[in-house]
Amino acid sequence: MHLKNAEFDGFRNLSGQVSFAHPLSVLVGPNNAGKSNVIDALRMTLTPHSGWPLKVSREDFCHSGTGTPATEQFTVSLNFANLGIEQSARMLTALDGRDTASLHTACELPLTGRPKSRLLGGRDKSANLEEWARTAVTYTYLKPLRDAELDMRPGRHNYIVDLISAVAGDGDDRQAVVDIAEQANIDLREVEAVSRSAELIQGRLNSISGDRLKQSAALLFADPAFENVLSNLGIGIGRDAALPMKQNGLGLNNILYMAVVLAGLTYEHDSELHVLLIEEPEAHLHPQLQDLLMRFLKKEVEDRPDVQVIVTTHSPNITSAVGVEQITTLARYAGKLSTGLIDEFGLETQEVNHLNRFLDVTKAALLFANAVILVEGLAEQLLFPLLAAELGPEYDLAECGVTVVNVGGLAFGPFAALFDDGRLPNRCSIVSDSDPPKEESGDPAESEAAESKLIEPDSVLSATAQILKESENGQRKVFLASNTFEYDLVLAGNWEWALRALVLLKPRVAKRLRDDENLEEGNSQAQAVLDAISNRKGRFAQALTQTAASVKADGFTIGVPRYIKEAILWASTSDLEAKGSTQSSGNDE
User: Fold this and answer.
1) What is the DSSP letter of 366?
2) Whole-angstrom distance between the N-terminal and C-terminal Cα of the chain?
3) How many helices (H) and strands (E) are present in the chain, helices listed first?
4) Where are the domains of the chain?
5) CA dihedral 55, 57, 63, 69 (to 10 degrees)
6) DSSP 246
7) Which of 154, 281, 282, 166 has its CA nearest to residue 230?
8) What is the structure's pLDDT at 155?
9) Which segments of 266-367 does DSSP mark as H helices, in order?
């Protein structure tokens, strides 16, 4: 049994359906996409393992950006699949079919007073939902930026008490804990300083209360009751010794906190499904610990069919540590939520395998971007932000939420497939070389067209470039160099810039090219640079970034090749569309 999806109508900034992977689901997307709202909707509908469910407030109803309510009611529907016979029997009043069930939160907003909320069950949203069915699915919530030390402090209501109580059950361990506490109190009284202090306290107490109101006082190591003894236990963590939490950093304390919670789930048998909700587990964790945490979660839930983990994150480290099949994307364009479980995108097996092999931390950033530019190599990845800045501040890639992703060659296919219609809604620019035949045409008109990119694709493009051009759709566009990236960069009027960069790599070659009076401006210069850096394109790109400031300071202009300009404009324009939202809520996250 697992939570398959959630449907939203009028709840905050959510609408439509969000699907979840099982047993581990990772929700990704930019800020204000609605990830935290999804988590809150689950907390509002499901039964907490301990404590109280999230209460409905007036801010939970969809409203405009000015705070004006846009609806007087909302519904959250949670749909469960793959119920076994016993689970179906327990959720009888919530069944949709033989092995499916649903729970619904339906809320109304009165003119005055608190919102009214009802928990309903089944396809017909019946109000006759039994308690036995309502509590069949429970949850534990780990909030973002949590104070692990505060949450794990000694007290009756922390996870340590719950864990030890569950492990002890009704066995002899309970009495053993009581016996130890009683003996500790006896031993404590044998210490002279303790017994003398107790006498001093008792004497003053007798003087205050008098004989008729006389009270007895004692110094106790612990109240010898099982729960009270446990409530005084603390927990520590450290490399060489278990230090108190206050002596450790936030990251280690958060790892310890999650370890205690996950250990407690081993003894959670009251529900048919327990959903662990974790928001931003990357908080306070360095990248290696983020990776190890997600590996652990994946392994932990593999053998627990009664546990489902749902994680929200802004971390490419977290995202790249799980399979793409476990990722649900959320994004907003023109105020509308676009979401999808990548496992339901219909990707070919080889595409999924490729993404799982190569979706590293840098490439995983594409799942959080407003738009994406896919490029062949390191050179483009390094220089595109610099070239975008030359177009004006409104095209700053970081401010526009545009991520440049280096696919490491011509393996665009699996990454580009993410941007097919009905999948990721973001705009995608694919930037590649046209790799035309080496022979040059004698037709001046064709040469001029090649430089301006007005050439007919089937006449000058390589087979790979031709396939790329034919793959365009409404959100994915392909932009090709007339030759190669470095070649077109020189053609755009960057001869001086190229020479200064070449000095850092091959100073004698740079001097020879500068002194060569036979090199004509344009194609000859571009080919000369390309030949000189054929085996050092990555280093050449780094040298270009190093020398850009000095070139501009000396009055030279950095030219942006036309195809690069068009690729940047296509991707950065999507940011304007993303800002067109007219619908928001008190919690847009």
Assistant:
1) G
2) 28
3) 24, 20
4) 2-147+257-327, 159-233, 350-492+559-576
5) 140
6) G
7) 154
8) 63
9) 287-302, 316-320, 349-358, 361-364
DSSP lists the bridge partners of residue 480 as: 432
CB atoms within 10 A of CB 438: 5
Query: Biggest alpha carbon distance in the chain?
Result: 120
Measured CA to CA in angstroms, residue 179 lies from 184, 191, 222, 304 at distances of: 9, 19, 11, 35
Which amino acid makes up residue 328?
T
Domain 2-147+257-327 in this protein, CATH class: alpha beta
Tokens of 218: 């004692």
Residue 170: how many other CB atoms lie within 10 Å: 6
Range list of β-strands (E), 144-241: 236-237
CA distance 569 to 200: 82
| SS3 label, residue 433 | strand
Q: 431, 436, 434: which is closest to 477 by C-alpha?
A: 431
Distance between CA atoms of 498 and 482, rounded to whole angstroms?
A: 18
Give the pLDDT confidence score for residue 442 in this predicted structure: 47
**Cα–Cα distances in angstroms (integers) from residue 585 to residues 58, 67, 533, in the given order:** 10, 7, 53
Integer-rounded Cα Rg, in Å, for the chain is 32
What is the reported pLDDT for 463?
Answer: 80
Q: Which of left, alpha, beta for 284 (phi over 0: left; psi -120 to 50: alpha)?
A: left
Let me know: does 173 contact 308? Beta carbons within 8 Å: no
Please give the Cα distance from 43 to 312 (Å, whole number). Answer: 14
Flag residues of the chain having pLDDT under 70.
Answer: 65-67, 145-158, 222, 237, 239, 243-251, 268, 436-461, 574-589
Tell me what percent of the chain is helix, strand and coil, each rounded to the nearest 5: 45, 20, 35
Burial of 269: CB neighbours in 10 Å, binned 0-12, 13-18, 19+: exposed
| Topology classification of domain 350-492+559-576 | Rossmann fold (3.40.50)
Assess whether the region 2-147+257-327 and the region 350-492+559-576 belong to the same CATH fold: yes
Give the separation between CA 378 and CA 484, rounded to whole angstroms: 14
Check if the beta carbon of residue 498 is closer than 8 Å to that of residue 490. Answer: yes
d(CA 479, CA 461): 12
DSSP string over 263-279: HHHTT--SSSEEEEEEE
Nearest to 133 by CA among 258, 45, 263: 45
Task: Tell me the two tokens of residue 541.
Answer: 């790109």
Question: 125-151 as b/e, with b when 16 or more CB fall inside 10 Å?
Answer: beeebeeebbebbbbbbbebebebbeb
Residue with tokens 């092999």: 357
pLDDT for res 298: 87
- Residue 394 phi/psi, 5-degree rounding, is -70, -10
**∠ CA(159), CA(161), CA(162), 5° rounding?**
65
CA nearest to 117, candidates 38, 43, 199, 56? 56
Measured distance CA(23)–CA(1) in Å, rounded: 10
Contacts of 326 (CB under 8 A, 6+ apart): 21, 24, 25, 26, 343
Asked, as a colleague might, if the bond just before 23 is cis with ω within 30 of 0, I would say yes
Cα separations (Å) of 367 from 26, 184, 358?
A: 11, 57, 14
Contacts 24+ apart (CB under 8 A), 190-196: 194/219
Q: State the pLDDT at residue 517.
A: 87
Q: Is 363 helix (H, G, I), strand (E, B) or coil?
A: helix
